[in-house]
């Protein structure tokens, strides 16, 4: 409340400031009842420790940037907190110009509060980065770490370009060895068994199977693959063994290209982020100028002109009149207020974090976003046209309703699940039937004794 009150102070809106400042004044008075925390030297030590401890890197970076002529967001934080601490300490220690102020905690709490907000924002930003990193690792984990490389009797890796070897039975006669997927080179041949994830992008040279490509296309229907068919890393082979000639190395798969795409998207700045970076320098100089002008105004003639209004404000908010003892004390208070409230914390922290989190969460849900500029442009989109089923759905079928005559839903689903039990691992619709039956408590254990006689 006290911090927000300073915002209105800096704008000259003292009546609104009183709503928030009054509560802070009463809170400070009650705190003074505690011998330890009400002691001005303890408060001074705590505030100093906060700035030279957790806030040290921010403040040092801010002043270095100012010294080099390229001020940044940290510059305002450093100047604002440093000025507030300096005035608060001089007040607490009874130095001239500030000794008459009634409560030193007002200026000592400002730098600590501001640094707390900044540091909390950066902690949240780091958490978002760690979560984004986990999402990208999960995207890369779609590709198995190991592959089954095919060798001939001489121990030489077979090349899938050999047109004389097209029968799966022939490939079964060759030796295989488990190797790291990243070590598979273009032209090498790998064997993929039913239920395994295809490790490389390539072409089928032997075998027939059905492949689940929903991870890339969103389509739940299995795609038939045979000799000459293209397959992609990260897709799942279902009901037959395949021999695949790698089109590229294991380290250059489609899924890994997607991960690199997302990482590049996170590095692209949104227009609002570029705007924040471009206005940062001029903005810092503007605020420093406004703070100086505020000090000159109140020191020069503002104090004498508006002293009665300041007295009325202090009475209305139960504040001591000691801070009105001189124009210098008033000028310092308002000049520091301008520095403190001008720190654009949200602009500096929220923009890069939102781009980072947005692109990572979208990638996890199968949406690739080119960068922060695209995210920002989405705010202007009114209509989205989707090309096919599976693009915005989960990509796997589910039973939504059951219509039956003369038989309960549980009994019917139990029979259906028993019939589909053997196929549930390979076919998405069969899997949906078995899962729905299980949710009804009808798993269909008697599948081996059920035969299909006649279908009308």
Automatic annotation (TrEMBL):
<dbReference type="InterPro" id="IPR023298">
    <property type="entry name" value="ATPase_P-typ_TM_dom_sf"/>
</dbReference>
<dbReference type="GO" id="GO:0005507">
    <property type="term" value="F:copper ion binding"/>
</dbReference>
<comment type="similarity">
    <text>Belongs to the cation transport ATPase (P-type) (TC 3.A.3) family. Type IB subfamily.</text>
</comment>
<keyword id="KW-0812">Transmembrane</keyword>
<feature type="transmembrane region" description="Helical">
    <location>
        <begin position="73"/>
        <end position="94"/>
    </location>
</feature>
<keyword id="KW-1278">Translocase</keyword>
<protein>
    <recommendedName>
        <fullName>P-type ATPase A domain-containing protein</fullName>
    </recommendedName>
</protein>
<dbReference type="InterPro" id="IPR008250">
    <property type="entry name" value="ATPase_P-typ_transduc_dom_A_sf"/>
</dbReference>
<dbReference type="GO" id="GO:0055070">
    <property type="term" value="P:copper ion homeostasis"/>
</dbReference>
<feature type="transmembrane region" description="Helical">
    <location>
        <begin position="334"/>
        <end position="357"/>
    </location>
</feature>
<dbReference type="InterPro" id="IPR018303">
    <property type="entry name" value="ATPase_P-typ_P_site"/>
</dbReference>
<dbReference type="InterPro" id="IPR023299">
    <property type="entry name" value="ATPase_P-typ_cyto_dom_N"/>
</dbReference>
<dbReference type="InterPro" id="IPR059000">
    <property type="entry name" value="ATPase_P-type_domA"/>
</dbReference>
<keyword id="KW-0479">Metal-binding</keyword>
<feature type="transmembrane region" description="Helical">
    <location>
        <begin position="283"/>
        <end position="301"/>
    </location>
</feature>
<dbReference type="Pfam" id="PF00122">
    <property type="entry name" value="E1-E2_ATPase"/>
</dbReference>
<dbReference type="GO" id="GO:0000166">
    <property type="term" value="F:nucleotide binding"/>
</dbReference>
<feature type="transmembrane region" description="Helical">
    <location>
        <begin position="106"/>
        <end position="124"/>
    </location>
</feature>
<keyword id="KW-0472">Membrane</keyword>
<keyword id="KW-1133">Transmembrane helix</keyword>
<dbReference type="InterPro" id="IPR023214">
    <property type="entry name" value="HAD_sf"/>
</dbReference>
<feature type="domain" description="P-type ATPase A">
    <location>
        <begin position="172"/>
        <end position="261"/>
    </location>
</feature>
<dbReference type="GO" id="GO:0016020">
    <property type="term" value="C:membrane"/>
</dbReference>
<dbReference type="GO" id="GO:0043682">
    <property type="term" value="F:P-type divalent copper transporter activity"/>
</dbReference>
């Amino acid at each position: 409340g006290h911090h927000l009150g300073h915002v209105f102070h800096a704008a000259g809106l003292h009546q609104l400031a009183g709503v928030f400042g009054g509560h802070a004044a009463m809170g400070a008075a009650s705190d003074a009842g505690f011998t330890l925390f009400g002691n001005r030297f303890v408060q001074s030590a705590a505030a100093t420790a906060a700035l030279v401890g957790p806030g040290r890197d921010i403040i040092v970076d801010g002043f270095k940037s100012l010294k080099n002529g390229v001020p940044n967001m940290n510059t305002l934080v450093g100047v604002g907190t440093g000025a507030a601490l300096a005035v608060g300490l001089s007040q607490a220690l009874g130095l001239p110009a500030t000794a008459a102020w009634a409560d030193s905690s007002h200026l000592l709490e400002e730098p600590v509060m501001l640094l707390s907000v900044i540091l909390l924002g950066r902690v949240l930003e780091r958490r978002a980065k760690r979560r984004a990193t986990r999402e990208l690792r999960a995207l890369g984990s779609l590709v198995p770490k190991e592959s089954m490389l095919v060798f001939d009797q001489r121990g030489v890796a077979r090349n899938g370009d050999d047109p004389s070897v097209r029968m799966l039975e022939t490939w079964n006669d060759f030796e295989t060895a488990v190797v790291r997927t990243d070590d598979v080179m273009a032209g090498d041949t790998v064997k993929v068994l039913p239920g395994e994830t295809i490790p490389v992008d390539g072409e089928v040279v032997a075998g027939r199977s059905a492949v689940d490509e929903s991870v890339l296309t969103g389509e739940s229907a299995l795609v038939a693959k045979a000799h000459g068919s293209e397959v992609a890393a990260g897709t799942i082979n279902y009901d037959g063994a395949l021999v695949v000639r790698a089109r590229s190395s294991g380290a250059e798969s489609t899924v890994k290209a997607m991960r690199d795409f997302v990482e590049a998207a996170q590095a692209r700045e949104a227009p609002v982020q570029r705007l924040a970076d471009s206005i940062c320098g001029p903005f810092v100089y503007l605020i420093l100028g406004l703070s100086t002008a505020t000090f000159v105004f109140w020191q020069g003639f503002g104090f004498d002109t508006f002293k009665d209004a300041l007295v009325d404000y202090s009475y209305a908010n139960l504040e001591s009149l000691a801070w009105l003892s001189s124009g210098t004390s008033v000028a310092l208070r308002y000049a520091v207020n301008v520095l403190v409230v001008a720190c654009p914390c949200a602009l500096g922290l929220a923009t890069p974090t939102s781009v980072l989190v947005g692109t990572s969460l979208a990638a996890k849900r199968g949406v690739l976003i080119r960068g922060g500029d695209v995210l920002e442009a989405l705010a202007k989109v009114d209509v989205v046209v989707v090309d096919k089923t599976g693009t915005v759905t989960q990509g796997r079928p589910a039973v939504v309703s059951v219509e039956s005559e003369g038989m309960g839903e549980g009994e019917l689903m139990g029979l259906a699940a028993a019939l589909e039990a053997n196929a549930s691992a390979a076919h998405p619709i069969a899997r949906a039937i078995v899962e729905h039956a299980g949710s009804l408590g009808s798993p269909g254990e008697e599948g081996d004794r059920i035969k299909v006689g006649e279908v009308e």
